[in-house]
Design goal:
Shape: globular
Strand order of the largest sheet: 3-2-1-4-5-6-9-10
Largest sheet: 8 strands, mixed
Strand content: 15-25%
CATH class: Alpha Beta
Order of helices and strands: EHEHEHEHEHEEHHHEHHEEH
Number of domains: 1
Distance between the termini: 33 Å
Oligomer: single chain
Mean pLDDT: 93
């Protein structure tokens, strides 16, 4: 792997198509760079106004780029299904799926439209269902890749099948860590299942370290302890969102990557810096839990990976 890799090292992505979830922060920076190198980009998000504003900004920077917005609410299985149906009608294939969007640490337990705890439902189950919807397009893609965003927080995560939706008790960070652990386990399980079934997909995970995005203010709130730290200590503690996007971009575009790998920043305990191989918690390697989580997720989201 190239040392000191940055977005300047991304090879041309002309002729390749990519779906990126999330219209701000890491999602915006990822979409900007993928547009810059010639990919056909679909930016998918819940808020139409915010999404179209992001597209306008990118079009202004890269007038010759090919990028469009598609509405997608990861907290609503009906919206995910409709998005899948629309794309399968409009597009012949898909080369890259970046499962990026997330919510973090709402102070009270909130639920998705389908009754899932919001963090697990959006960060993990929504992307699980989306990947199943995209699978037929990915199978027609050219060397298709799926990149699922995890977090340093996965290190303290545990999959609690007895309290998966935090109905018995809710601690914001416990639920967030569980959701991001689930994302990482999904990325590896997807690779194992792709290998076994011959789907031809390369599945990887990435994390952005600690980056200056709206994830904390939008979740815990701008006046929470984390929100205040983000506001006043941002330049010291948090790297720019453009750098936080490097691990995702590396996984999505570098020729030397391999499936079942986890990429993140390589400096200061993976909080910032150039992309490298990221640390994996021991619980990620429990393939029995990963398989059970996959089966439970299929039941909850009512999707099947064909």
């Amino acid at each position: 792997m190239k040392r000191n890799w940055t977005s300047a090292d991304i090879p041309s992505q002309k002729g390749r198509s990519v779906v990126i979830t999330g219209t701000g922060g890491i999602g915006y920076e990822t979409a900007l760079e993928m547009t810059r190198v010639g990919a056909e980009v679909i930016m998918a998000g819940r808020n139409k106004d915010k999404g179209e504003e992001a597209i306008r900004k990118i079009n202004k920077i890269i007038p010759a780029g090919t990028i469009r917005f598609e509405q997608l609410d990861l907290a609503d299985l009906t919206s995910i299904k409709a998005f899948g149906e629309r794309l399968r009608e409009q597009d012949k294939s898909l080369d890259i799926l970046i499962n990026n969007a997330a919510v973090m640490n709402p102070p009270q337990r909130l639920v998705t439209k389908d009754g899932f705890e919001l963090q697990l439902g959006t960060n993990y189950l929504g992307h699980f269902a989306l990947t199943a919807q995209m699978l037929p397009l990915l199978q027609k893609g050219n060397k298709p890749r799926v990149i699922t965003l995890s977090s340093i927080a996965h290190l303290s995560g545990a999959i609690d099948f007895n309290n998966l939706q935090a109905e018995h008790n809710y601690t914001p960070m416990v639920s967030y860590s569980q959701s991001k652990l689930a994302c990482l386990m999904f990325a590896f399980e997807l690779q194992r299942r792709s290998d076994a079934a011959g789907w031809g997909i390369t599945s990887m995970a990435a994390h952005p370290g600690i980056s200056r995005t709206d994830l904390i203010p939008n979740g815990a709130g701008k006046n929470s302890a984390a929100g205040i730290a983000r506001r006043f200590l941002g330049p010291i503690l948090f790297q720019p969102a453009s750098h936080g996007a490097w691990p995702s971009l590396y996984a999505a575009t570098a020729e030397e990557v391999t499936g079942g790998t986890y990429y993140g920043p390589s400096m200061m305990r993976e909080t910032r810096g150039y992309p490298g191989i990221a640390k994996i918690a021991p619980q990620v390697k429990d393939t029995r839990v990963a398989s059970k989580l996959w089966e439970e997720s299929e039941k909850l989201t009512k999707v099947k990976f064909i």
